[in-house]
Write a structure and sequence with these properties.
single chain, alpha+beta, five-stranded antiparallel beta sheet, 40% helix, globular
Length: 202
């Protein structure tokens, strides 16, 4: 067999072996990775949903798009909490496109009826100091219990009731605005959110 053919066969065999190894590794790690993501999702949902539900919100999901949730109106999962089959709350991600350094993604939980249960910033590109204030302080708790009617939506510098950060207004203004838009979306669509048959997460 000519040398170049022999080298070609050897390379092909090596490629097949490498492919088989990678496929085997992928099949072994697929389960643990999926479970890790599920546990991460459950931990996040637990921070923004009430405790009094008896279903599994991570599987009771409907996908809905709206420009108030994100500018492309890309459908996002609505994780629905129920008790005895009755609506309790829903959690979903709303994106603030006007952060200081770009998009800020906020997981927000809203009780049936329209009161915020909790919010959690899950992704942002803000500078470390600003990011820490959104994530590691009690600032997100200032949204708990707020409705469209019982709150002055805006940071204090703009005449609202939410604190801005020392020397920084853009980031909290963006979060407050996004949460308000998310709440408006929820109030207008809660019947649809809770009555549409579950689709699963895409």
């Amino acid at each position: 067999m000519p040398h170049f053919l022999k080298m070609g066969v050897i390379l092909m065999v090596i490629g097949l072996i490498a492919t088989a190894i990678l496929a085997n590794v992928e099949s072994i790690t697929r389960g643990p990775i999926a479970d890790s993501r599920r546990q991460e999702l459950l931990a996040s949902l637990a921070q923004v949903l009430p405790k009094d539900f008896d279903n599994s919100p991570e599987t009771d999901v409907v996908q809905i798009g709206d420009k108030r949730i994100n500018r492309p109106a890309k459908p996002v999962p609505m994780y629905r909490a129920r008790k005895g089959g009755q609506p309790v709350a829903a959690a979903f991600v709303v994106t603030a496109p006007d952060g200081y350094s770009g998009n800020i993604e906020i997981l927000m939980g809203v009780a049936h009826g329209g009161a915020i249960v909790g919010i959690k910033v899950i992704n942002h590109a803000e500078t470390p100091g600003l990011g820490d204030k959104m994530v590691k302080t009690d600032w997100p708790k200032s949204f708990v219990g707020k409705t469209l009617k019982n709150a002055k939506w805006g940071v204090k510098k703009d005449g609202g009731e939410f604190d801005q950060f020392a020397g920084a207004t853009i980031t909290p203004r963006a979060v407050v605005g996004a949460v308000k838009r998310g709440l408006e979306f929820f109030v207008e669509n809660q019947e649809r959110i809770f009555t549409t048959p579950a689709e699963g997460v895409k």
